[in-house]
Amino acid sequence: MQKITLIKIEGCPYCKAAYRAIDELKTSNNDYTATQIEILDENFQPELAGKFTDYYYVPSMYVGGKKIYEAHPGESYDECFANVKKVFEAAYQ
Fold first, then answer.
1. d(Cα 90, Cα 13) in Å, to the nearest integer?
2. Residues 80 and 15 sit within 8 Å (Cβ to Cβ)
3. What CA–CA distance (Å, rounded) separates 31 from 84?
4. What is the DSSP string of 13-28?
5. HSE-CB of 20 using CA atoms within 13 angstroms
6. For the residues 25-41, what does the mean pLDDT come to?
């Protein structure tokens, strides 16, 4: 299992949806409960988030330094869930 890095901004509704998807995935798959997720807040940790230069929107999620998911304006929860699931699957490859 590889570590997931999640870049977020406090108060972002798309980030809230990603957290909801993470909780649902961990609840539905016991293997995911041990997943290590490093959370970086772009506003409070700009020096750390700034190391990732290939994203514009949050949440953005990386596995092994590779971007797997970046939200987009107007994204539905179902889209978010499917993408967060891809991140978890990539972390377990």
1. 24
2. no
3. 15
4. HHHHHHHHHHHHHHHH
5. 13
6. 94
How many residues are given for the chain?
93
Answer for the pair 71, 18: CB distance below 8 angstroms, yes or no.
Answer: yes
Q: Distance between the two ends of the chain, CA-based, in angstroms?
A: 7
pLDDT confidence tier of residue 73, bands split at 50, 70 and 90: very high
CA distance 20 to 57: 18
**In this structure, what token pair is assigned to residue 42?**
């772009």
State the Cα–Cα distance between residues 37 and 18, nearest whole angstrom: 12
Amino acid at 81: F
Q: According to the model, what pLDDT value does residue 85 have?
A: 97
Q: Which of 58, 47, 68, 46 is nearest to 2 (CA)?
A: 68
Q: Report the alpha-carbon distance of residue 10 to residue 63 in Å, rounded.
A: 21
d(CA 35, CA 37): 6
